[in-house]
Write a structure and sequence with these properties.
It comes from Marinactinospora thermotolerans DSM 45154. The protein has about 160 residues and is α/β, with parallel strands linked by helices. The chain has four helices and eight strands.
């Protein structure tokens, strides 16, 4: 991975989500549900939900990254886990901000695959090493990404990371 960083601003994020929505629509894919991977995927799913006129949004909480370049041994689903009955026989679009190693997306994709009619993935960024090759990608990169929602430290300090002034 390069030491250089991708810097995504909120304005560029709006452009990215809109262009991603056009790629999905141009492909003819009409999801019944958008399943966001929290936390970064929440922003992507919300934007895609509006752009694709999909009101049925679900959230899957997965913990994997613990810091810049630091991960748990494997991604872990956190409660509440979506009820598979709600996904049954639906066309699901999994939304996340980045497919880095792809391990989080693979966990969610595998969770959905046996319960849904079809599952596809949409991300803002995909890295070359990702285990999952997403159907819809705004940009490919091998850089670390500074997302506008996570570049500043938390306002509330719950893990010793410090506060901004």
């Amino acid at each position: 991975m390069s030491d250089e960083r991708e810097n995504l601003t909120y304005e560029l994020f709006g452009t990215a989500v809109r262009e991603l929505a056009h790629r999905i629509a141009d492909d003819g894919y009409e999801p019944d549900i958008i399943l966001s991977i929290a936390r970064g995927g929440l922003f992507v799913a919300g934007g895609l939900g509006y752009a694709l006129d999909v009101k049925n949004l679900h959230v899957m909480n997965v913990e994997f990254y613990t810091g810049v370049g630091q991960t748990l041994d494997m991604p872990v689903m956190l409660p509440p886990v979506p009820n598979t009955v709600d996904l049954s026989r639906k066309k699901v679009l999994v939304a996340d901000d980045v497919a880095d190693s792809g391990r989080t997306l693979k966990l969610v994709h595998d969770f959905c695959a046996e319960h849904v009619a079809e599952v596809r993935s949409a991300v803002i960024y995909e890295k070359p090493r990702s285990l999952v090759k997403c159907e819809y990608v705004w940009k490919h990169t091998d850089r670390w990404i500074n997302f506008p929602w996570s570049v500043l430290p938390p306002v509330v300090d719950r893990g010793g990371r410090g506060r901004d002034a």
